[in-house]
């Protein structure tokens, strides 16, 4: 006996019709026994008021019962007079959004014609199958809109179900935190079904409708999959397998044949097996040189917050991929993102722009290890130059502190009385894509010269490509998904990371170009990544790794020769000042502006600065113009001074 029918709200319809016989239609619905009128046809109100949601399948409009029947084989089902079907289910909350299917309507408001009624064609509405109300299929509920993206930001570990099984679901805060953690990885159906299935184990479980309503309310909260992992570990869960199913012991496989560029002045093969595997994975799709940047970036994430050198170097390298356009490096940036997703480390991704210090600090609170890619870097920096007090300047200054491993203090704006959070030893892997025409513009930008520009390795791109289609080797995933997981968990204890200190010698022979004044530090950092990935127990950086790093950095330094350059292909302070002067146009500038805005000029001794300005005045490249009423002069590029006059 279907006892659930007793609580349905009904109302009379006109005979042999679907039209209501009352003034307000389904709004007049009430229990059947309260009606005194006699009618042939009746309507049943759908939605929370009656506690039912009905799936209406209409073959005349393309509805296919096979899209519903496999999911609801035992559901109460009515054969309609029009040749379709009504599937009765437990109700979902008002306002629930459903997916769109041709010829299938989800009735969570309004009404349906009750069995026993007569269709205008004369055919009856009759029960085809009776039974208890099943839960409404979650696959028909439209997933909530993703914030800020539609696709998942990562993939769930293979043992996610086991981890959930270790976490009790009775406590509401825990229930919400687990839901938020799953939502942060996949706000769609896969994440919801995991949470809903786990929620059923609670005595306070209120059904799929309640879960769906709460799931729709989730927004970005800083709670990530790392929170769920920590909850599982706190409740005694012990991982018997890595994050990714490796399918047994890694078996060496035949490497694909790769046509290496024959004009590189160094061997592109990375002298570390694991990183070379990544490069070979990337190089069929990526530019040959950017594939090295991809491998080194992933390698830096493998050893994040675990190693340093006796000179204080951290395993972080920031790559600026210089190609024909600002979007040329997108393939390399997306390749690293693909690798992190395959290793279930999607919460470490930060795309788009981190254009303020506050945004970057919040990101580091969620995960002290981040990978950030952007192809709007140069545009943001140039905008910041026009707006010197803009957010980009603060963000770059913060990047600079991160590169040097300084602790970060984050003040709580909502609760200013609270003790600020201290983020120890954050790790930032950065890839930016820069167009060749933008490179010259940012070299004289004051904000850039003060910040991460110093630690950025400019890498020349040659050819565009596509994101690697094949999966990463399982040995890479094992290593990436192991230490990286623990080191990227939100900082709960606020304690500094534990570092192994490796001895390293200072490299020699690296370019002394002003653009690469920190080449030695960059080379040491690359060598540290190589040695730490190659041997986690290493006590010193291998000389062979340092030699390879030096050759790679030197190649990058020599490959990017700006158009305005000295005879040996390198820009001199003279060239930088000339480029700066041309950018000022009719505004002009003072020697003090040069000190603030042109780093190669600032690095000169005071007497050399004066000598350089005198030389450029003698050459006629610069023109000095007195300021009326003041005992000062402004300098202008000769292209912006009227011929024969010292007026602008």
From TrEMBL:
Tree of life domain: Bacteria
Cross-referenced SMART domains: Prim-Pol
Q: Name one GO molecular function term.
A: hydrolase activity, acting on acid anhydrides
Q: What protein is this chain from?
A: DNA primase/polymerase bifunctional N-terminal domain-containing protein
Q: Which organism is it from?
A: Leptospirillum ferriphilum (strain ML-04)
All copies of the DNA primase/polymerase bifunctional N-terminal domain together span 1-140
Q: Which InterPro entries match?
A: DNA_primase/pol_bifunc_N, PriCT_2
